[in-house]
Specification:
By secondary structure, the chain is mainly α. Helix content is about 65%, strand content about 0%. The chain is globular. The N and C termini lie far apart (about 60 Å).
């Protein structure tokens, strides 16, 4: 078997199931379509895979032969512009954590969004994570050692950015990306002990998760997926199964948000196999209940109620020893997500009660979540044919979303607007519609 780690061109070619001869023929065909002749042969491709940089014209032919648009090429950054997989998912492996991070960081460029990631690819990744062994940390490298003081600086920087008030966090993406780029570089080129490596992988996973949520909130779904996947690779490298399950549950949440509940269910089923912390399992069960209920299949009602019951028990069992990424899970989340699931099952009265209770329980520090919860409360009021309080909740949500820079919350309200149209004469509704159009 070929070593796919030696060069991105080899990895990209093999990911597409192409032999060296296939690639050569594709390159020659790309030149021929322009009435030109390429001198590419197997020997030359070998040279490219060993560090020789092809000229810009040849790079265009390579991209075309691999089925990619020419505008992803940055000739002066060969081979870093090459995608590392055929389906956008870097496979889990002993040294996959750096390629996955680099793929996420490169996907930030808009021209790479042509690499869509299918539900089948995400489900397969989740299955590999659930059944495969924990990945050993990378050994020391022959390069300059990384000091614990430097790692602590990176950790403190990331934590400081995460602790900012919600309205200020909207201005931090570039800083987070820079911090993650530094961690990626140190993982790739630094020399570190297993203890320092564990901290670097954990930090990479945490940063990737934070960045992914920012991208998701702004509707940049391909970017968000790549960051969550990169985080999963690093949680896997650190042997942190609870964090890995959380990153998978984020991918499932995104799939459900986009209406792909089958993929969401598959991912969550795999995530639950290795999650052990009660708070983590509570979050997974809540998301499972939500996605099962959203499918609209009344035969799943029992499964939904079982998941909600399990989530309630796990939250009761959760003490203060919680992973940072799910330390926020609370009675407020249990109430609102339970209410949303019951709303989808048709139990509107109980659903409205739970959603309202949960929104009131939410700490003031969780402004973005409050915006989402207010949108849910508006929905439940509309389901009970109560347009005036629905408009009030929707208006609060929209104003909050605009203040803190949370377009996902605003999108929830945009989706509700057609349901307000029949109530244009009701107090507060016309004001809401005007605000939304401004």
């Amino acid at each position: 078997m070929e070593d796919t780690t030696r060069h991105p061109l080899a990895a990209a070619r093999i990911a597409l199931g192409m032999t060296m001869d296939d690639l050569v023929r594709g390159i020659r065909a790309a030149a021929a379509r322009r009435g030109l002749r390429s001198g590419a042969d197997v020997a030359r491709v070998h040279k490219w895979q060993r560090g020789v940089r092809p000229n810009e014209e040849s790079q265009i032919y390579i991209a075309e032969a691999l089925g990619w648009p020419a505008d992803i090429i940055r000739a002066d950054d060969w081979p870093n512009w090459l995608p590392l997989s055929a389906d956008g998912v870097v496979p889990l492996g002993p040294h996959s954590f750096v390629p996955a991070l680099r793929e996420a960081l490169r996907t930030v460029m808009e021209r790479r969004t042509f690499l869509t990631i299918s539900g089948a690819a995400l489900s397969a990744l989740a299955a590999d994570w659930a059944t495969g062994p924990a990945t050993a940390l990378a050994p020391d490298r022959d390069s300059r050692p990384i000091s614990e003081d430097f790692v602590e600086l990176l950790e403190n920087t990331a934590q400081s950015l995460a602790d900012l008030p919600t309205e200020e966090r909207q201005h931090t993406p570039a800083l987070l990306d820079a911090c993650l780029s530094t961690v990626t570089d140190r993982l790739a080129h630094g020399r570190y002990t297993p203890a320092v490596g564990l901290r670097l992988h954990t930090l990479a996973a945490s940063l990737s998760q934070t960045i992914a949520w920012h991208r998701f909130d702004h509707g940049r779904h391909t970017h968000a997926r790549q960051y969550w996947i990169a985080g999963l690779h690093n949680a896997h490298a650190a042997g942190n199964h609870d964090m890995g399950s959380g990153l998978l549950s984020d991918l499932a949440y995104q799939a459900a948000w986009q209406g792909d509940h089958t993929t969401a269910t598959h991912i969550l089923d795999h995530a639950l196999t290795r999650a052990r912390n009660p708070a983590a399992r509570c979050l997974l069960q809540l998301r499972l209940a939500r996605t099962l209920a959203a499918q609209g299949d009344k035969s799943e009602a029992r499964a939904v109620l079982r998941a909600l019951s399990a989530a309630e028990q796990h939250l009761s069992d959760a003490g203060d020893d919680r992973p940072t990424w799910c330390a926020w899970v609370s009675e407020a989340d249990l109430s609102v997500d339970s209410g949303q699931a019951l709303l989808d099952l048709g139990d509107t009265s109980r659903a409205h009660q739970l959603i309202t209770e949960g929104e009131h329980l939410l700490p003031t520090t969780r402004a973005k979540t409050r915006g989402v919860f207010l949108a849910y409360r508006a929905t439940s009021h509309l389901d009970q044919k109560e347009p005036e309080p629905a408009a009030a909740a929707a208006t609060q949500s929209l104003l909050l979303a605009r203040r803190i820079g949370a377009p996902r919350c605003a999108h929830l309200i945009d989706d509700l607007l057609p349901r307000f149209q029949p109530y244009a004469h009701v107090q507060g509704v016309s004001e809401l519609l005007h605000l939304a159009s401004a």
